[in-house]
Amino acid sequence: MLSGVCEALAAEGTRLTLLSRRASAWRGAVVEAFDCDYRDEAGFASAVDAAVAHSGPVDVAVAWFHSVRLPANRRLAERIGAGTLVQVLGSATADPAHPDRLETARAVAEGLRCRLRQVVLGFQVEAGRSRWLTDREISLGVLGAVHRDDLVTVVGSVEPWSARP
Hints:
Largest sheet: 4 strands, parallel
Structural class: alpha/beta
CATH topology: Rossmann fold
Strand order of the largest sheet: 3-4-5-8
Strand content: 15-25%
Number of domains: 1
């Protein structure tokens, strides 16, 4: 879902290192690809360490972990050092019944030097109907957030919550 972000950053001349379950299968301008699953704590930690050893300090990391309560979140934030972590979050983070979720997600960088930026993915409302964001809309929204450097960016809409697909 974030391949468009990788493609756009590569087109801008950004040097990329990719960590994902199928990183080595990605066909784009990548300095190095590390196959790993963020749910495998030891394997992910090893891949992050190898990526930093190979590519050097992290300037910007774009990460979409489907849970903020996994050790991988903190591990990546620790290894970023003074770089920026762009944390991509699902729409449930904006649920008004759980106003603590954005703050809970923010805790991943608590006490660390990394600069945290958050991107909340919402939905689109068109002609009175709602739908989830497309991969392209997600990539464009995340890329915009990387360039703007806002603390929190919402891609699409999260209100009214009752309109969620």
